[in-house]
Specification:
Distance between the termini: 94 Å
Helix content: 40-55%
Structural class: mainly alpha
Shape: elongated
Mean pLDDT: 80
Strand content: under 5%
Order of helices and strands: HHHH
Largest sheet: none
Number of helices: 4
Radius of gyration: 35 Å
Amino acid sequence: MSFLGNKMQNPRRFNHQTIYVNERKEKLDKMEEQAKRDLGLLPDKKEFNPEDLRGKFVESTVHLKKRKSKTKKPFSFGVILVMILFLIFLWNYILTGEWSFSLF
């Protein structure tokens, strides 16, 4: 058996035929649902909107929820401002040798 000389056969295509299907019941259910929608007992079907799917996967899995909740929050503006002021005073102390800060 040579791979170069023989033509490779294509695999068979998947063909799934349902065995236990009640077509009459499905048709009646669709008719009943449509009648309820016409009478206003059920809301109209929504169009598919990809925006509705955003975040659904993360909400449905436990480990992703935990990972999302463990994310570190960035520093707030106030903490950054205090750190900058402290570094300015430290720099001034290193240059002048005094903790007092004078502009002139």
